[in-house]
Each structure stands twice: as structure tokens, then as C-alpha cells.
């Protein structure tokens, strides 16, 4: 945990020291709630300057990736990630190594299903004040953060019990969101695919650090092993081994890690 003064807890610091000495490493991070504090308007999310600066430094010594539920195009627009960073969007389904669209193209049947699900979510949003729909290449997302709590609960219930229960869709719950996708989504698979692709093009990746704040990140935590460092940002049950309090704690962690990697490179 980061302490009240923003320092890193000793066990986490020790794990970062071991990680920093593990040769080639992959630093993979969730975006919303980890680099960027959560805000009402998804397109106003912005990473903390401390994290942006630390990631720029880390990109000189480490492989850096963002692994986000965001559409790849939005991640490019909002993340301020280093140019060398790999961007994985759509909860693991789109990868910047695969070109502009991230390599995911829907079949005609999937596109029809997405249009139907999107229309159903738009109908729910229109009937609930403060509720809106975000459009992504493989999914549609009902956002309830701005709604009255009872209204949010009712809109969520209608989305989950309605289009979220249709055959052929994949329904994910996140922080104030219900996401309905027409292809399977999973950050764990996307993260392992990326690690293996990097290793195929160079030395093996000695360890991965992954940090996330939402239930959708549990899949990535579970996919990693003993040599890896997993960090939950904020409260809530988790399979991650370590925790920081908030995105500011993440900026502190990334700065400490950049220092440790610089020191390891200088040895
Ligand atoms: O995997 P992530 O990078 O954490 O993306 C997860 C979802 O993030 C966005 O929604 C969340 O952040 C919004 C902006 O702060 C907030 O308003 C919303 O309540 C959060 O759930 C994004 O809009 C989704 O598409 C992502 O799946």
C-alpha cells in the first residue's frame, strides 16, 4: 500500500527492487483509475503528469504497454503514452502492433449483433437521466456515473438482464459501467499474448508488472506468475499481491521504478 504520506510500503518497494533487476521487463498498466483519475466524462480523462514523466523514462529501460478497456483509438488520443509503448485496447482484443484498427475486425453477423445491442442500450440510456452510451469497435458501454444512484441501479439492471443476457454477447461489469461486447474480451489473454510477442522478437521477458483498479483487471492479475508484480490501485478484493491507494500512489510507484531501472542499467 502507499502510506498516507504517499510513500511506498516496504514489501512493495522490495518487490520493485527485485523486478528492476530482472533483465528485460514489461511494465503494463491499465489507464482509467490507474494513470488517469476517474472522471464523469470518459473523454476528459487525463493521466497524471508524474505518471506521464515516469513512463517516458521507463520507456528508455523497459518495455512499456497500456492494457486498457478503452478503444485503441481513444487510448491513442488520451493516454500521452511514450511513442515506444505498445497500446492494447478493447480489454486485450486490439493491439497497436497490428496496425491502426488493432487487428480486430467484426464479421457481418457480429456487426449486426453490435448494432442491435447498441440500439437497446441507447433506448435504456434515453429512459434514464444521466445515463449515456460509449461506442467501441467491439462493444457498447452503458455509463451510469452521472446518474442518481437509484436511476443508475435500474439502468444497470435493465442492461444486464436485457441485452447483456442475449445469446452471443459477453457482458462485463466495471466501475459505473456495463459493457456488452460481441467478441470475447480478456486482459489476461491480451497481456500474455503481448509478453510472448515481445519475447519472440528479442530476449525473453524476465518479469511483468501489471497494475489495475477494476474488476476487469483481475483477469490480468490471475494470468501472471510468481516472478511478476501485480498491483491493485484503490480498495476492493483482489488477486493482486500489492496495492497502492490511488493514481497518485501509482505515479509514486512508477517514479521509484524508473529510478531503480536507471540504476540497474548503470551497473
Ligand atoms: O481498462 P481501463 O483503462 O481502466 O478502462 C476501463 C473503462 O474506462 C473508462 O470508464 C471508466 O473511466 C471513466 C472516466 O474516468 C469513468 O467515467 C467510468 O465510470 C469508468 O468506468 C472507459 O470509458 C471504458 O470504456 C473502459 O472500459
From TrEMBL:
<keyword id="KW-0479">Metal-binding</keyword>
<dbReference type="InterPro" id="IPR003337">
    <property type="entry name" value="Trehalose_PPase"/>
</dbReference>
<comment type="pathway">
    <text>Glycan biosynthesis; trehalose biosynthesis.</text>
</comment>
<dbReference type="InterPro" id="IPR036412">
    <property type="entry name" value="HAD-like_sf"/>
</dbReference>
<dbReference type="InterPro" id="IPR044651">
    <property type="entry name" value="OTSB-like"/>
</dbReference>
<comment type="function">
    <text>Removes the phosphate from trehalose 6-phosphate to produce free trehalose.</text>
</comment>
<keyword id="KW-0378">Hydrolase</keyword>
<keyword id="KW-0460">Magnesium</keyword>
<dbReference type="InterPro" id="IPR023214">
    <property type="entry name" value="HAD_sf"/>
</dbReference>
<dbReference type="Pfam" id="PF02358">
    <property type="entry name" value="Trehalose_PPase"/>
</dbReference>
<comment type="similarity">
    <text>Belongs to the trehalose phosphatase family.</text>
</comment>
<protein>
    <recommendedName>
        <fullName>Trehalose 6-phosphate phosphatase</fullName>
        <ecNumber>3.1.3.12</ecNumber>
    </recommendedName>
</protein>
Amino acid at each position: 500500500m502507499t502510506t498516507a504520506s504517499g510513500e511506498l510500503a516496504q514489501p512493495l518497494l522490495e518487490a520493485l527492487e527485485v523486478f528492476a533487476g530482472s533483465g528485460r521487463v514489461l511494465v503494463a498498466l491499465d489507464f482509467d483509475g490507474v494513470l488517469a483519475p476517474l472522471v464523469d466524462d470518459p473523454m476528459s480523462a487525463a493521466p497524471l503528469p508524474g505518471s506521464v514523466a515516469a513512463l517516458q523514462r521507463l520507456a528508455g529501460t523497459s518495455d512499456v504497454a497500456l492494457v486498457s478497456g478503452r478503444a485503441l483509438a481513444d487510448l491513442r488520443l488520451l493516454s500521452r503514452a511514450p511513442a515506444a509503448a505498445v497500446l492494447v485496447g478493447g480489454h486485450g482484443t486490439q493491439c497497436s502492433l497490428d496496425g491502426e484498427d488493432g487487428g480486430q475486425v467484426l464479421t457481418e453477423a457480429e456487426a449486426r449483433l453490435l448494432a442491435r445491442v447498441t440500439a437497446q442500450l441507447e433506448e435504456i440510456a434515453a429512459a434514464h437521466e444521466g445515463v449515456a452510451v460509449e461506442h467501441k469497435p467491439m462493444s457498447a458501454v452503458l455509463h451510469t456515473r452521472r446518474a442518481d444512484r437509484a436511476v443508475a441501479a435500474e439502468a444497470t439492471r435493465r442492461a444486464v438482464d436485457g441485452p447483456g443476457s442475449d445469446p452471443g454477447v459477453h457482458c462485463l461489469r466495471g466501475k459505473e459501467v456495463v459493457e456488452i461486447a460481441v467478441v470475447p474480451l480478456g486482459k489476461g489473454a491480451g497481456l500474455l499474448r503481448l509478453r510472448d510477442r515481445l519475447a519472440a522478437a528479442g530476449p525473453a521477458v524476465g518479469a511483468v508488472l501489471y497494475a489495475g483498479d477494476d474488476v476487469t483487471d483481475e483477469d490480468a492479475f490471475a494470468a501472471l506468475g510468481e516472478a511478476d508484480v501485480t498491483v491493485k490501485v484503490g480498495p476492493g478484493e483482489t488477486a493482486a499481491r500489492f496495492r497502492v491507494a490511488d493514481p497518485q500512489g501509482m505515479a509514486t510507484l512508477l517514479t521509484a521504478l524508473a529510478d531503480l531501472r536507471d540504476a540497474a542499467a548503470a551497473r
